[in-house]
User: Fold these one by one.
Assistant:
Number 1:
Amino acid sequence: MPLAKRIIPCLDVDRGRVVKGVNFLNIRDAGDPVEVAKRYNEQGADEITMLDITATHEGRGTMIETVRAIAGQVFIPLTVGGGIRTVADIRAMLNAGADKIGINSAAISNPAFVREASERFGAQCIVVAIDAKRVDDHWEIFTHGGRKATGINAVEWAIRMQAYGAGELLLTSMDRDGAKSGFDLALTRAISDAVSIPVIASGGVGTLEHLAEGVNLGHADAVLAASIFHFGEFTIADAKRHMASRNIEMRR
Amino acid sequence: MSKHLLTIIDYGMGNLHSVAKALEHVAPNFQVEITADKARIAAADHVILPGVGAIRDCMAEIRAQGVDTLVRDVLASGTPFLGICVGMQALMHSSDENGGVAGLNTFPGRVHCFPKDALDVHDLPMKVPHMGWNNVYQQAEHPLWQGIESGERFYFVHSYYVEPQPAYTIGTCHYGPEFAAMVGRDNLFATQFHPEKSHTAGLQLLKNFTDWNGRL
């Protein structure tokens, strides 16, 4: 049997609480990160991703404590991102128990940081997060929660980040994020087919069928979602059953 | 009664904290130490050699810090020993990674890169690293398999794999080629997957390791 596709619940964390908004607005509280992570672990999540959405210097200590608490109780891979800018930031998160580190803005302002991080810690722990938006007939990289254009072509950027030593890409459609209308499948497939490293699809999941489409039509290796799981709409096990019914190889 | 001592060899490579946390969880009666201290490692009841990243850098650190000698001493002493991921690959004769790197030659196996031409379910080239949960098929009986079914999924993340040597392969996995997911002989065994990240099955395997006296 082949490698299983992965379901990754995502915890957006703001000052020690899980939150979720629509297009980065209308933030709702979704609980204590440790409790939420434990619940997903028990439901059979394949990994957990935690993003520090405020990523302030003051908030960093709280995030490290949260990572430490989760890593002591949840024994599946844990990715941590948000405000990671230096090798010291990465080391602090790894020492707290993170397995993979998401790098987003710092990769854009200083691509060599991805290479340095990959050489220092290994490609397997460097996840480059790409926030892309459709512009005319292609996709471009945006920063600052989708507000600031960079003019960088998303597919070219993905190929470049692979060359710089990314071990995996976390691809978010800024057009779809929080909209519950499904992944941007054309974007997901364009990037997944262009690189030889795994791609996690993110942004827009509103139904279980959206998850299956991400793999079958978007060619994603993993699918990430937040709100459909946070508020009890579906469990991870529901999602796995549905994806398995669409002939997707899943871990039980 | 003093606690059993389990040392995780710290040679400056990789994330050792996940391994330590998982062991503290399954074996509360063990004192778990991440250390480079030769005396502590020699005094340990159980020893773990982890490793992530590039094998060239790992082997350079292993040799620079005398871990190669330590591993041979632990092996000779009969102390139960576990290698994880690159900590398994380092035990082989040699690796193709980084243009060819000599290993510790504890096992005769060789380490290869996943082929670029293998196709996935979409008829596209298979993604490398091999990242995620894959089935491990038990090829030989071993005390470490206690309570774990053949075909159970474990978490992998690696770009290079160990060619199976039938005499030492106790578990296999397929990703394009079939490769050795777990090897063992005497008091030594090693996994390509990460038991510390493999949920219930991985924790069971680590528990079995702490219960093991190193004899088959």
Number 2:
Amino acid sequence: MPLIDQTAVELLAMLQAGDVTSVELTQAYLDRIEQIDHQVKAFLRVDPNAALERAEEIDRRRKAGKPLGRLAGLPVAIKDLLCTAGEPTTCASKMLENFRPPYDATVVAKLKAADAVLIGKTNMDEFAMGGSNENSAFFPTRNPWDLSRIPGGSSGGAAACVAARMAPLSLGTDTGGSIRCPAGLCGVTGLKPTYGRVSRYGLVAFASSLDQVGPMAQTAEDAALLLEVLAGHDPKDSTSVDLPVPKYSETIRKPLENLRIGLVREHFGEGLDGEVEAAVREAVKVYESLGAKVVELSLPHGKYAVATYYVIAPCEASSNLARYDGVHYGHRTDEKKMAAELEAQRRHWQDASGTRQKHWQAASGTHEELKNQDNALIRMYRRSRAEGFGAEVKRRIMLGTYALSAGYYDAYYKKALQVRRLIRGDFDRAFAEVDLLVGPVTPTPAYKIGEKVDDPLSMYLFDLYTVSTNLAGIGGMSIPCGFSQAGLPIGLHLQAPPFEEERLLRGAFMFQQATDWHARKPGGFYE
Amino acid sequence: MPISRQEVEKVSLLGRLLLGEAELDTMTHQLGDILAYMELLGEVDTAGVEPMAHAIDVSNAFREDAVQPSLEREQALANAPHRDGECYLVPAVLGEG
């Protein structure tokens, strides 16, 4: 078996046994990236020299018998939403094209402390907003199983690089499904931890009450190993929870006994593709054959999850993204052009007495107030942001700003927060009856690039099975459970109560012991 | 349409965005669709339900009030698009007509 087809656990054993050096392994992945990433486009940046230097240093320390970290010598890819000190961290946005953070995200610092080799930064939807990777300001990533299709998003590069064997492990982030959807569509294993399980320090904020960092890997066992390195309390993130980190990589081999799995009735209704449904039902039979009892139940507020999510997430985003003002860092507009534009517009307002003024007054506030607000500084912000952000980011800033603006706050934001509690209550009641919820992770397999770009609402509805996990703050996972006739991967969604990542991983491991969907790899296009 | 073009233009000022004429049209149409979908929330009875702003109940994560190192000024300014040796620079606003 070629080196790059091995799992992370196997590769670490080979590194420890001296069967392979980190330099050889890193070179093998770099070669693979060189060969195929011009087609897949999973990476925004790869620095071969830095990666090889790091690998060499770890090999040297190993040879000298020095103590080494858990992931010593193993390449890991990082979603470009996670800060890497002194290295570009773009969030796939023109806004941050030249941004170099002065510090490491805690998860990046943990990988470095574990002696991993950081092999590159992966592509994504701009600021993690999107489910297809088409919102990257630089280029779309392609699905390794069919290059004309999306890899899912927003962690599309993170999923595609593992699927195409360009990295054994990668870090993704998940705000409404951004680890699980691409994992499902690319046929890899991805885990969104419970909110608070992993530090968000240095994760460039999208929606702070929903964002989590998590592992993406070929197998549940590899994901367990990576989660063990990432998880834990961080004084730099006051929402990270101070609970001991279980030994996921050890407990994972213990099958779940007397397992009760729940099927959410509403998840098998309208909109679910027949092939996806068939694969998920087949997966449920696998669990039954392993002794699980199946219970059908209802999450009555599930139908409100997408609407709730697309109020709360944009509200938080509009507030978080206010920091991109062209002053402290990020893109800044040409000030001379800005000043000339403002001057011309003011003259126009004075001349064309009437239409423009009435127009503003109709919106609210007096024309004078609004005009005064739009001074040279504000105009600099507005132009910088208009030039730096892409369409989807602007849409969410607009949605959030609107929903939080005077007169609408109670109708949208407060209402959504109330429904959020009802959604959480549904889960609490469900988990009193069952240990795991099992269902589809996306309504269809990967769709064609360009298919939904003009219809943001249909793009949002693609998240219908995953957003409620984040709203409730619980853990979720996607594992491969089959393929469509066209050869596209299908993902199985597992959800568990808060801080039950062990249960998710053990459940996933049981399934992967009984099936081999996770071991399939895309072939053909690069051979 | 639950949102007018004028409202969209006003929100673009509040959100510190500058949208062109074509963008305003598209945005009005798309936000209208999305907000219409959100009216679904209106059918949920939320009387007496406490809003849930966060998934976990962590409150008052205090630490000792001890002086700790922070970013050096040079590091903090390093990414600034326009700066001098000590400060971020912005367009003048005082004394503007």
